[in-house]
Amino acid sequence: MDNSFAFQALSQPWWVALVVCAVIAAGVCVVMLMRYERRLVPRNVGATLLTIRGAILVLLLLVCLQPVLSWTISRSQKGRFVVAIDVSQSMLTQDEHGSVGEKLRWARALGMIGNAEINARLDRWIAADREGREFEWVTPDEEPDPERRAELAAIRQEHVAEVVTAMDGISRREMLETLLTKTARPLLDGLRDVVDVDLILFAGEAESVAPEVVVASLAEPSSGLLTQSSDLSSALKRSAADSEGSPLLGVILMTDGRDNSVNDPLAQATRLGLTGIPVYPMQFGSERRPKDLSIASLDYPQTAFKDDKILLRASVNLSGYENQPIDVELLRAGQPPESRRVVAIGSTGTVDFQLDASEVGRKEYILRVPPQEGETRPDNNEKSFAMTVVDDTVRVLLVEGEARWEFRFIDNAFTRDERVDIEKVVFDQPYLGILDETFFPRRLNLPADPADLEHSPFATPDVVILGDISPQQMSGDAFKLIDRFVAESGGTLVIVAGKRSMPLAWRSPELEQLLPVRNLVPVNAAGESGRKAPTERGFHLRLTPEGEGESFLQFDPDPVANRQIWQHLPGFTWGLVGEAKPGATPLAYAFGPDDIPSLNDERAGAVIVHQYYGFGQVLWIGVDSTWRWRHRAGDKYHHRFWGQLGRWAARNKSSAGNEFVRFGPLRTDIAYGEDAVISARWTQPYLRQFPQLSSKAEIYRLGNDDERELFTTIDLTASPQRPLFHEGRAVSLPAGRYRVKLVVQGADPRVSGLEAPLYVQERTTLELSDLSANHELLAQIANSSKGELFYPDQVDQMLKKITDPLRTTSFREEVELWNHWSMMVALFGLLFVEWVLRKLNGLP
């Protein structure tokens, strides 16, 4: 503690001089008064009065000089590190295919080889292995005699061979467990000597674990961790989320670097780095790809229309089998297997199958690669998947102000789709009078009654797409009908931004309610940005995590590949960017090449936004040029986007329900480990009639003969943001077929009994499609967070990074003595005593 005492007034000499003069003058007056009072009172009383009055003058002098007492307090607090441990299935790999140098690193980490005398020699061999050079087993400096050098080299080579062979039976997870708890100096003990330690296990999800049960948890991870996948972001988010206890100084990420989630671990690592929390990845596993065959990804529609031409495109990893003929089999119950030969491109290959869509119903398949000799892991050679065939057509109403480029390409995409029935209205179009009528209809035949939805153009469509329409072209009554089309009949409204009118020129309360965005601001890519190449021009769209899960925004089944496609799509030179309303979900947001993503950007800079509205839904698209996606790609992305959007919209209108409620899972097909979100969307009049309504969802699991067994029951509760929605979540449903039944209490019993299907598939991930350690990703995570990448044999070097974990917090406190209550008490106390003495002795 550092104390100091100072007079603030000394910084103003004129004030000090004035105060001193005043006190001297007051002292002279006190002395003169004392000489007068001596004739009236005894000497001891006069001396006491003089002392008191002198003390009063001293206090007044101190008050005027403004004394301040200050001190500095320093507090040291022990820091905290989070150790995040990967328990995904890839960590069970035994890296027999690893190089000699890699195995030497692992053996040294486990204490099987190495000491202070030979570590430099091991480093030399490891470096030679990484650089592809021959090992120099014995240097001339160690042994000048060639014969003796050859004998010593043979001994060392034999010893290394024994160590390498011993490493072949150790999995990555076993190595990690030994490093944590069983070496001569376990990592956990070394960390606890200097910091507090929190442990997190992660795979597809993350959860905290107590140190005393970490070994048991590593041996048998809980099912909630979803070990079939790897999500590095889940570990980093969980590390940052726990703010209790001592300050977080860093994260140690013990993993092989495999990540097959839809999240971006680099963005999360960057956020940690900006808050002063470095990430120290520790890499386990070989960077070499093993000799292995695996199904990497499947590209197929989950829902298709009857008689559609459905193509399954599978990507197959051929590591170690690049020059061999490999056949892939498609299996379906009751039918003979189909076989196709993989078309190899390097270490990957593709194979296509035509899926049968001639019959309505659910089709379940298995795609497998027969195991080959020498495979590292044959348990990743097959994937199951399912497809639902429905007999339906998407009905689209496309309404535009004029035939702008966006209208032409959307019209072309839907017109060429055999499963889409499209009607078009263009209000403003050239007409020479040669034909009896314009090429497109140019008016909406609205009924006289704005509440008559049945006889309006909005009675039959599944989806209505509104373009750049002005208030002069379409009346406000049309939006009243559109409001009913969405809220009551469960339709989908897509609003595409327009430069002229939509929606900034409108003052319609119905449109204002329907729009899922607010505070719209035009964005123009002017100047040099607008003159760049299409892929570099303007701003781009980046999907939010919710957007990456939407089917109509998926251009590739692999989340990583889909994210890369969106990043490299041509940019936009104009758009309307807005803030997503409460209850709305941003699916894509504007993103510049130099921007750092944040959660605020997702909502404040939203471009594609989804919102449920009554029984239906509204989609806002804040750009007017999705046709730019055709640059050097033709119809590949543009037609796929609008085709998928149409089918996505049609499924919403065909969900189970009646005039009071729409009921069912938000997604009928989910992967194991995903939450099944069950929703009941009620009409407002019905909820007003039955304010005490409560609802549940009974989930029945179906057997082979469609026998049903009640699996679980979940409560459906309303949220303050969306009171018409009652939602619940079923967590960790096993793979299989289900029926979800609505049960209602406190209302008309006729709404009970609605049922909807739910299918839970085995999780299709890339967890076992590539078993090599992802060194590049781990290095990027370390750099993004201002951390450092380590190997298992570098524990001591890692611990040196944590040599000063104490966080010292210093703060300064001060007391203004001249303004303190004690000074006032002392001053007025002396004045009171002086007054009492005077009165007791008869003085005035």
Secondary structure layout:
Blueprint: E1 2-7, H1 13-37, H2 43-65, E2 67-77, E3 80-86, H3 100-109, H4 119-131, H5 146-167, H6 172-181, H7 187-192, E4 196-202, E5 206-209, H8 214-219, H9 232-241, E6 248-255, H10 265-274, E7 279-283, E8 292-299, E9 303-305, E10 310-319, E11 327-332, E12 335-341, E13 343-345, E14 348-355, E15 361-368, E16 382-390, E17 394-402, H11 405-415, E18 420-428, E19 463-466, H12 476-487, E20 492-496, H13 509-514, E21 517-524, E22 540-543, H14 545-548, H15 559-568, E23 574-580, E24 585-591, H16 599-604, E25 606-613, E26 616-621, H17 638-653, E27 661-665, E28 669-671, E29 676-682, H18 684-689, E30 694-702, E31 708-718, E32 725-730, E33 736-745, E34 755-761, H19 775-784, H20 795-800, E35 807-816, H21 821-840
Outline the structure in words.
The protein has 844 residues and is of the alpha+beta class. 29% of the residues lie in helices and 29% in strands. The chain is built from 21 helices and 35 strands. The strands form seven sheets. An eight-stranded mixed sheet has the order 18-17-19-20-26-25-24-22. An eight-stranded mixed sheet has the order 27-29-32-31-30-33-34-28. The radius of gyration is 38 Å and the shape is extended.
